[in-house]
Known about the structure:
- With 246 residues, this protein is α+β, with helices and mostly antiparallel strands.
- The protein has one domain (3-241): CNF1/YfiH-like putative cysteine hydrolases (4-Layer Sandwich).
- It is built from seven helices and 14 strands.
- The chain has helices at 16-20, 43-53, 125-130, 132-140, 162-170, 189-199, 222-228; strands at 3-7, 10-14, 25-28, 59-61, 71-74, 88-91, 96-102, 106-111, 118-123, 146-149, 177-178, 186-187, 204-206, 237-241.
- The strands form three sheets. The chain has a six-stranded mixed beta sheet. Strands 5-6-9-8-10-13 form a six-stranded mixed beta sheet.
- It starts with a strand and ends in a 5-residue tail after the last strand.
Amino acid sequence: MLERFDEDGLTAYRSPLLRGLGVPHLFTTRRGPRDFDLGALDDRSRARLKLAAGAADARIAHVRQVHGARCLRVGAGPLPAGDAEADALVTELADLLLCVHVADCVPILLASADGGRVAAVHAGWRGIVAGVVERALDVLGAEGVTAAIGPCISAEHFEVGPEVAEAFARAGLGDTVREQPGARPHVDLRAAVEQQLRGRDVLRIDTSDRCTYRDAEEFYSYRRDVTHAGRGHTGRLGALIGVREA
């Protein structure tokens, strides 16, 4: 289970399993000196984020997320341009933090057994049924993978249409759809990701019982703040990971 920590006014979550590998990482919340929005960080907040993740001198790599299954390998040279499109990043470079942004979708951090290769994955419902988790594991290309599933929207609050429920069933994830007579179906995104990981022999998994929709004091939620409340914008949470220091 992920562990919450509060450090110098910043609240975040870490994975005991990833920490045991010596892998720098972090799942952020909205709680900082003020609302901590990964979509709008100033230099001071960015430096604070890297320090909390355990990689104060690292560069941060992120891309434009499009709810697909593309996984981008980040190698030597310039970081991906801001308009590069992908929903998962993989690297084995030192001094680099991979970052994905979420606001209800599932953030997933992956590490090889020796911590020398890592991945960050953004998995909304479209990405899950498209196979972004499996694609990230393919590109990671490692055995004995450790995974951490970050806070996301819970099944209780993720009501969907029948076409989404059918897409999960077609993807072999029908057990994660909750049906009740006279009501719209709900989908357990966290359980779907865990099922896909275990199906690829990823057995070391940390997860969380936090819900981005329900736990408003800690998390942004697109469905709560924009879809239901009609606001024009909500902030972004982040999941970051880097390779183990040699």
